[in-house]
Amino acid sequence: MFPSEVGTLKAVEDVSFVVHAGESIGIVGESGSGKSTVAFALFDSVPAPGEIAQGEIHYFGQSNFLQWPESKQREVFWQKVAMVFQAAQNTLNPLLRIRQQILDIADAHDMDGTRILRTARDLCTTMYLDPDRALNAYPHELSGGMKQRVSIALALLLNPALVVLDEPTTALDVISQASVLRILNDVRKSRQLSLVFITHDVSVVSEIVDRVIVMYAGRIVETGPVRQVIQQPKHPYTRGLLGSIPPLRGDLSQTRALSGQPANLLHLPAGCPFQDRCPDRFERCTVETPVIVKDPASHREVACHLFHPETEERAQ
Question: Highest mean pLDDT: which of 42-51, 142-151, 225-234?
């Protein structure tokens, strides 16, 4: 939550999920839906004045990560869990060559610099980068797509089991986006990585994730296998997100932007946070906040008063 002079803003509330070994999940939603806050919370690094008021994070079956001392938390970063930040190319130190930044990482983790540089060269090759050029360059000497791939290589440097990527393709052109997504997918499969891929672009997640979480107003409104969610969205918000994506070819008149504005987290309405923008709202939506309803048969979870798994199962 984020305290302010006009009230306390709950950026994320009741968000819970599990990432299995080798699984890739996507978290999607508009700006302000709470996606990036979830990413920072996973590293106990919510920007000030924000704080994690309650909840738990468990990595690899261990105790609550939020209660670990900072020194123990730091041992997990990079070696077991790594993050690629939004506009990751801006996280590179502009005053140091990439080689020196890699050596600094090795030094921080008491590892042999020569061995880490060999690993970095292999990762550069995996990312379709010329190792000699990339490692000896300053960040400004690389293109946006190259810097993004260098940032991903740095995240993989110590062979973590889980990588969190916060909007890793936002600042890239379409061709660079496609290249980064293809490389990420190949690396994930070859290394059996677990990924948490955060993006506002629903069309992106279908290329790389197994399961998708849709967030609105800081809450989960729908989850499920990515193909099922994209082909048969159950929540009106998910349908709106998908309906707003323009097709690559064909009739653009079928494209419909979501109506209204994202919910004000300081003044959420009673009932469903999406009610003011929902074409299917009815009286119950204005007085009762929907809870997540699970459908074990399809592995879908939806927070909507209109979702009734048993009825849908009979209809099919």
Answer: 225-234
Local confidence band at 315 (pLDDT 50, 70, 90 cut-offs): very low
pLDDT at 136: 95
Cα–Cα–Cα angle for 223, 80, 49, nearest 5°? 70
HSE-CB at 206 with a 13 A cutoff on CA atoms is 9
Q: Exposure of 108 by Cβ count < 10 A (0-12 exposed, 13-18 middle, 19+ buried)?
A: exposed
| Residue 79 or 313, more confident | 79
- Per the CB < 8 A criterion, the answer to whether 141 and 103 are in contact is no
Instruction: Evaluate if residue 81 carries a pLDDT over 50.
Output: yes
> Cα separations (Å) of 312 from 119, 149, 210, 281?
51, 43, 23, 19
**Cβ–Cβ < 8 Å for 20, 210:** no
Residue at 79: amino acid letter? Q
Task: Report the half-sphere exposure of 291 (CA within 13 A, side-chain side).
Answer: 1
